[in-house]
Amino acid sequence: MLICIQPCGRDRLPQGCPVLRFRQTMLSVRRFMEESLPPVSAPRPAPQTSRVLLLRLMREHVRPYLPRFALAVLLMMLVAATTAALPNMLKPVLDGVFTDKNRDLLWQISAAILFLFIVKGFASYGESVVMNTTGQRIISDIQQRLFGHLVHADLSFFHAHATGNLVSRFTND
């Protein structure tokens, strides 16, 4: 550690003082950095807010598949309706079968409950298939768009970025 052993004033430092040499070195480094840095370019336009970006992406990628989403919503509503109908089917079992001893009603309600479970299963399966295939198609569209952009990109872009970085960004993003 360098210590100035000469009495230093606030306004003036002696010629051989290490503190003075340090200040001069730092000033020359600062001047060099200011001269060698490129001038500040014009400010970039503000990036899109996340809400605007989300709406744009939804418009571009989801809109073509709206009928499939509508079908999935209808199937979801059917699953919800059959789920809500199952407890309502049990009330006649408790009232009609156990109190009135009506065995014919037991077979009818059992068949109706079985039918509801079958409808619910098919609707749930259909909704799952429609949503998964739609999601995979949207991902495929985005990947094809990205590939088309890469194929037509300038070679300087690939020289400027590391291959591993590009591969990682395209696989994970």
TrEMBL record:
Q: InterPro entries from the entry?
A: ABC1_TM_dom, ABC1_TM_sf, Type_1_exporter
Which part of the chain is the ABC transmembrane type-1 domain?
70-173
Top-level taxon in the UniProt lineage: Bacteria
List the PROSITE patterns: ABC_TM1F
> In the UniProt record, does the keyword Membrane occur?
yes
- Give the transmembrane ranges: 65-85, 105-123
Keywords recorded for this protein, A-Z: Membrane, Transmembrane, Transmembrane helix
Keyword Membrane applies:
yes
Major localization class: membrane
What is the membrane topology here?
Multi-pass membrane protein
Which Gene3D superfamilies is this protein grouped with? ABC transporter type 1, transmembrane domain
- UniProt xrefs under Pfam families: ABC_membrane
Query: Cellular component terms, GO, for this chain's entry?
Result: plasma membrane
Where found, per UniProt?
A: Cell membrane
**Organism encoding this protein:** Elstera litoralis
Q: What protein name applies here?
A: ABC transmembrane type-1 domain-containing protein
> Species lineage, top-down?
Bacteria, Pseudomonadati, Pseudomonadota, Alphaproteobacteria, Rhodospirillales
Q: Name one GO molecular function term.
A: ATP binding
